[in-house]
Amino acid sequence: MTDAKKFSAETRVAHAGRAPLENYGVVNPPVYHASTILFKSLEEMDERARNKMQPENINYGRQGTPSTFPLERAIAELEGGDHAFTVSSGLGAITTALFAFVKTGDRILMPDTVYAPTRMFCNDILRKMGVETVYYDPLAGSDIAALITGNTSVVFVESPGSLTFEIQDIPAIAEAAHAKGAIVMLDNTWGTPLYCKSFELGVDVSVHAGTKYIVGHSDAMLGLIVTTDEHYTTVKNSVYHLGQCAGPDDIYLGQRGLRTMAVRLKQHHESGLQVAKWLSERPEVARVLHPALPEHPGHELWKRDFSGTCGLFAFILDRHYSRTAMAAMVDNMELFGMGYSWGGYESLILPANPASIRTATKWEVEGDLVRLHIGLENVEDLISDLDAGFKRLSANA
Prior knowledge:
It is built from 13 helices and eleven strands. By secondary structure, the protein is α/β, with parallel strands linked by helices. The termini are far apart. It has helices at residues 9-15, 42-50, 68-79, 90-101, 116-126, 170-179, 192-195, 232-241, 248-258, 261-280, 299-305, 323-330, 379-395, and strands at residues 83-87, 107-111, 132-136, 152-158, 183-187, 205-209, 223-227, 285-289, 312-317, 348-352, 369-373. The relative contact order is 0.12. It has a seven-stranded mixed β-sheet with strand order 1-7-6-5-4-2-3, with helices on both faces. The mean pLDDT is 96. 35% of the residues lie in helices and 15% in strands. The radius of gyration is 22 Å and the shape is globular.
């Protein structure tokens, strides 16, 4: 295993968590398909039961195996946390982490830009438990202190925001939350453990849809929760009691994807920025929502808190187009697929309407929003595909 202080992140992403010489020299950790774990003696079984809350204690397949632990160690090291947990999906990471810290009578704060399934969980499940969710302006910064009451247990942040890419002032929010005893939870899927060191910003718990850039190939469901020593037991209890675990084959795909994440992200960053700049010159485009562009409202915060961008951003068309015109554009793309995920090697396009789910802020813009994920294809080919799409859009307007 690597020394987190000695090597760069790009080097550590290739080595973190691995211990080949402990496994006959095999470079990649093997896949353990396991439910039952056998014990040599009653004494050993009792000892493992007593230590079931200790990290990497193998007691039952659901609680982790030698397939699970290397990925968890690597993610925690790369992001700057102390421990990580693999779960079934990104949403599984969010819901499990929230369950760990809430109880009946609590209040939690959610940015109005939050991932839609997170909102649904709060409105449909936490509400039934007697947990109040208050949605707040993601640009509140330190002003969020006015919303934090004595029963506020969690302040959730998602930076940038889903669909509309607002950058939140995480350190200011964390300072306000901690001053009143609330923990700060970040959905860091966009930033990844490489481009956003969440614990340096004051975050207590970070969650990821490992399905996205960690897996990187659109072929596995995986979630990760990263936390500190202080909150380890609280999170582990939630993972354990909710029966959360990830399948061994998905964990393997996550480990394999992780080793190339640094080089993939560099290409996503470079190609995404090139497409974003091209879009900003198009007459059909009113605005490009990409945090790395200097004109983006949160650009300075992005420069402070992130070391790069992924391939996900959006743009706003110059006006609202008919569904027929939009279909002419997106239905006939050659390289851009249409789907809800992102983070894989392939490019995606998705028209969306943020106004349909917001409750604390208003989304009032001059045209339709289209989200893009820029994959690993040749960027000139992607631009050509978008150019043809704009021509179809205009021809059917």
